[in-house]
Design a protein that fits this description.
Strand order of the largest sheet: 2-3-5-6
Oligomer: single chain
Order of helices and strands: HEHHHEEHHEHHEEHH
Strand content: 5-15%
Largest sheet: 4 strands, antiparallel
Distance between the termini: 30 Å
Length: about 475
């Protein structure tokens, strides 16, 4: 049932069959029973609770432009190329693309070229003539097998659902990219914070080790008491313990960052003070409604909602008759040599209609399932919007209050440094016990460490705001649509 007869009349019949198929294709799938899509109203306030100063829009600012530190840029680029989560997300897109291709092909007939032959012998006692008979049949041509004519849009709705799933997968890949950029940036900031704290701790260890050497000499000549010496030893021990703890934390942070990056990376300590200006750039949050287009995870949730709507259309179409077509056109002959002789043309046309009458409620239950899944998709979409709103609001609030804490920390550090200097001066002049120096230096070290932590938290809040606004999203991949 597959190869056309080379005769002119056969070609004309094939053209007529192709025209009929094209007309049927045009008529099939004209209707869609999916409910019209309307985005749910925003379940959040119209504006963020925090003041939003003027600045750049995060979605318009590529991560290469936002993060000015060259070392951080290299880490992000390597992570986007090698991170396994990004790789898995990209493969999910290809998986969804293949599934869409399969579902899209269901709209069209499958035309196959086939050939078959058979010979059979009937014994005389079973033959109507009473004599043994040998028969043969050979045929070749084109056939269409059980092609559903999509008058009610069932196949089209399933194709639309698969397309929306593909688009959602691509947006999910972009959302993974946004999260990865933020994670690498925060991991790098955490590493630089620990580098700076380790440097402070080492400088403190060196200073206190020198103090211990001087006090040991003074104790040996009898100018100070044993109590003063033990207090200096206590200060050094505390600094050594903090330095060891910070070194351990730094190693763990480096391991975590290397895993994020997805391969070996040079993470040697950097003793330079981190430049806040390389991250802290003003960002404009805009209005919550703008998030719907800026954040890939929200776009993905909307595509999932559209897919659920399309599935309702497919479920509704199941209540109507299913019309399918099986057809074949080719040549047939009792002799292989006569397969292409004049008059050997053969065809069949077998439309089929199935109307559901009783199925114990299966179609109705499938319809209910599609509607419930649509409601779940709406709830997930609203939840995603609320979560995005909170992330932006939290980042704006953190940026405001952490900036104030950094200013307070700088003032506190200046005051604590002066206190430590005066306490040392009072001790040297015999006006105060060394315990006063001990407390002042211990508090100074604590304030120095806290200020570094607060500065890093402020930088991280800016990274979080950038990610919450959809900044750093990779480009959308091209997806065929129809």
């Amino acid at each position: 049932m597959i190869m056309p007869v080379p005769a002119l009349s056969a070609c004309a019949r094939m053209a007529a069959l192709a025209t009929a198929l094209a007309t049927t294709l045009a008529l099939a799938g004209c209707a869609s029973m999916a409910p019209p899509y309307a985005p749910p109203p925003l379940p959040v306030a119209a504006q963020y609770p925090e003041t939003d100063p003027a600045g750049a829009h995060a979605a318009d600012l590529a991560w290469q432009a936002y993060f000015a530190d060259a070392r951080l840029q290299a880490l992000i680029a390597q992570a986007l190329a090698s991170n396994r989560d990004i790789r898995i997300a990209a493969l999910r897109v290809e998986e969804a693309r293949a599934a869409y291709g399969i579902q899209r092909a269901e709209q069209f007939p499958t035309i196959a070229l086939g050939a078959s032959g058979s010979r059979a012998r009937v014994p005389g006692d079973l033959s109507v003539t009473g004599r043994p008979m040998t028969s043969a049949q050979y045929q070749t041509g084109l056939n269409v097998s059980a092609w559903e004519l999509d008058f009610w849009g069932r196949v089209r709705s399933l194709k639309d659902s698969a397309l929306q799933t593909l688009l959602a997968s691509d947006e999910a890949r972009r959302a993974v990219g946004v999260a990865l950029v933020a994670q690498v940036a925060n991991g790098y900031l955490g590493l630089r914070e620990l580098d700076e704290r380790v440097a402070l701790a080492r400088a403190t260890v060196d200073s206190r080790a020198e103090s211990l050497r001087i006090f040991t000499r003074r104790f040996e000549v009898g100018s100070i008491s044993k109590l003063d010496l033990t207090q200096v030893e206590t200060l050094l021990s505390q600094a050594l313990s903090l330095s060891a703890q910070l070194e351990q934390a730094r190693a763990m942070q480096a391991h975590a960052l290397a895993q994020l990056v997805g391969g070996p990376v040079d993470l040697v300590p950097d003793t330079r003070r981190f430049d806040d200006a390389s991250v802290l750039q003003p960002l404009h949050a805009g209005l919550p409604s703008a998030l719907l287009a800026q954040r890939p995870d929200l776009v993905a949730a909307e595509h999932q909602l559209r897919a659920a709507q399309a599935n309702i259309g497919a479920a509704r179409a199941a209540f109507f008759p299913t019309i399918s077509l099986t057809a074949a056109y080719g040549t047939a002959s009792a002799e292989l040599s006569g397969l292409f002789d004049s008059g050997s043309g053969a065809w069949n046309f077998a439309p089929r209609l199935v109307l559901p009458i009783f199925d114990a409620g299966r179609i109705r239950a499938n319809m209910d399932l599609a509607e419930v899944r649509r409601d779940v998709a709406v709830a997930n979409y609203e939840k995603s919007v609320q979560g995005a709103f909170r992330e932006v609001a939290d980042a704006l609030s953190n940026r405001r209050w952490l900036a104030l804490q950094v200013d307070i920390g700088k003032t506190t550090l200046a005051a604590q440094s002066e206190r430590a200097r005066l306490a040392k001066l009072r001790y040297d002049n015999g006006a105060a016990p060394y315990l006063e120096v001990l407390d002042a230096q211990r508090d100074l070290l604590t304030v120095e460490q806290q200020l570094v932590q607060t500065r890093r938290a402020l930088l991280s809040s800016q990274v979080s705001l950038y990610a919450a606004l959809g900044g750093g999203a990779p480009a959308a991949s091209a997806a065929s649509t129809h």
